[in-house]
Every structure is written in C-alpha cells, then in structure tokens.
Design goal:
By secondary structure, the chain is α+β, with helices and mostly antiparallel strands. About 45% of the residues lie in helices and about 15% in strands.
Length: about 240
C-alpha cells in the first residue's frame, strides 16, 4: 500500500509532540518543586511548633495548657437522615472526611434539621476514626457526630493541631482511637509559646507556606488540564 501524506500535517504533529514534551517537563518540575516545598514546610513545622527553633526577638519558656481552657468546643450531633437533601435546603452537613477536600469543607449533603452549628472559619476536628484530622469550615455548617468545631483558637492552633495529627495513636496509650469525647478533648495538653505575638509570627510563616503550596498546586493542575487539551487536539487533528 502506498502511504498518504497530508500537506502540513507532519510539521503540525511535530510541533504538538514537542509541546507535549515541554508540558511534561513543566509538570515534572512542578512536582519536584512542590515536594521540596512540602519538605521545607514539614521541617519548619517541626522546629517552630515545638520550640526547637525560636524566631528572633522571642524568648521565655513555653507553657502547657489544656485545649478546653483556651477555646470553645462544639461537639457534633447528627440530624435525622429524613431531613437530608442534595438540592441546597438548610446547611451543608459535615460528618467526616467525605465532606472535606484539601482541609476545606465541601457541599455534598444538606440538612434542614440544624442540630449543632459550625461557623465559617471554625477549625474542624474529626472525633471518630480517623480521629484528629484537621480542616476549616469555609462556610456555616451543621456538625455531624463525626466532627467537632473549635472556636476562638488563633491560627497558630490550626497549624499546631495539624502537626500532631499523626500522634493520636501515641496519645491513646498504644491503641488506636475509634472516637474521642468532649472530656478527653478538653483535657488535651498543648505546649504553646508564652505570647500571642510569637504564636502569630509562627502562624504567619506557616500560612504563607500554605499559600505558596496552594498556588503551585493550582499551577500544576492548570498545566495538566492544558496537556489533556493538547493531547485531544493531537489525537483528533
């Protein structure tokens, strides 16, 4: 059989192929940069949230405080499932990890029976397996029994709770928590900087790192979407 050559097609394919290779390189470079930034963030959290490293101008011994002494805790209570809906009536129901993405609440199921309320900006903590996972309420929510809201805590506390997520097994004295109650949460001991100024300074550094990582991840996702579009164009002509 004799091959058929379409004028201009070879150069077009060559250009698209090179563009795909360039996009692969960009995505790979972003993957490496994100991994590096995450490692830097983890090291900073380990040093700054434990007092191993102090920021310039701050001194004084860190203090041990119980969680219930510094914040308001609102334990969740699930409404009746007969009041659930998916068309936006009432408030979003947050019951656990299924209602959270990238540490932010998402709107999945709504309820018209408002049992316990979480406010926009509250820190949310899972209180049923897996216990201890941390998120933020991006809007007012109804709290199911799988979560509690922590209200009144500074931004430092948000980062501190994230840093101890992997410690709950140790805190449970050798056995994995299936759940944790309000009394146990209230008596959870935290080691904190002695001044709000130092807590704020640490939180600002860690929040800036979060912002930088979020921007890099968004850039990587855009690059992936562009690559998919280019592949479709290449395959369909």
């Amino acid at each position: 059989c004799k091959s058929v050559t379409i004028p201009g097609m070879t150069g077009h394919v060559r250009r698209n192929t090179q563009a795909l290779l360039d996009m692969d390189t960009l995505i790979s470079n972003l993957d490496q940069l994100i991994a590096k930034k995450r490692n830097i963030q983890q090291a900073a959290m380990q040093q700054l949230l434990t007092g191993q490293r102090r920021l310039p101008g701050f001194r004084g011994a860190w203090e041990i405080k119980q969680l219930g002494d510094i914040v308001e805790l609102i334990m969740g209570q699930s409404p009746s499932s007969s009041n659930y809906n998916r068309h936006g009536d009432g408030l979003p129901l947050i019951q656990g990890n299924a209602d959270i993405a990238d540490r932010i609440t998402i709107k999945r199921i709504f309820t018209t029976e408002l049992t316990k309320l979480g406010k926009c900006g509250d820190i949310l903590l899972s209180v049923r397996a897996p216990v201890g996972e941390v998120a933020r309420a991006a809007f007012d929510v109804c709290l199911g029994r799988g979560v509690c809201a922590i209200r009144g805590g500074a931004e430092f506390l948000y980062h501190y709770l994230i840093s101890i997520e992997s410690s709950w097994a140790r805190l449970s004295k050798g056995s994995t928590f299936d759940s944790i109650n309000s009394a146990e949460l209230r008596t959870l001991e935290l080691r904190l900087p002695p001044t709000q100024a130092e807590q704020s300074a640490i939180a600002t550094i860690l929040s800036d790192m979060d912002t930088e990582l979020t921007a890099l991840e968004a850039r990587r996702e855009k690059a992936r979407q562009l690559k998919q579009g280019m592949m479709l164009e290449l395959l369909t002509g």
